[in-house]
Amino acid sequence: MKQTRAYKSRTGEVPCGDKDLYAFLTDMRNFKEVLPSGMLSDWNATADKCSFRIDRAGRVNVSLKEALPHTMISYTAENLFAGNLSLQVIIESLTPHSSKLYVTCDLNMNPFVRMFIGEAAPQYLDKMIDMIEKYDGYDKIRGYSQSL
Asked: According to CATH, what is the number of the domain 3-143?
């Protein structure tokens, strides 16, 4: 029997305004820039979908589900091993050139997967925040929302 479990990342801060960060993260082709590249292979993406392989976990298919301008982006993902998950990125403006964000995840998994993943899910979410914070292209995406 599968159970849904909710997880939340730490809050991160990026040198990018909320409008530009929102525009950047709603274009799934940009995900390759903020996901750990050493773990990914077989990358495919369009503006609203992406898929890739993760070592030891298999293919992951991610789709943009809902987007509330400048504040929330919701994605759905599926993986044969982990099952279905819902991921939300919450964005909050700090200044015109900085934002904070955090990620929540609802993971629907069977007891075996829950035992295998254990409490590592929040660590994966925090790593995602780390990658978004460390992205070195924010100077390129300032004004990104106006170019769309």
From this structure: 3.30.530.20
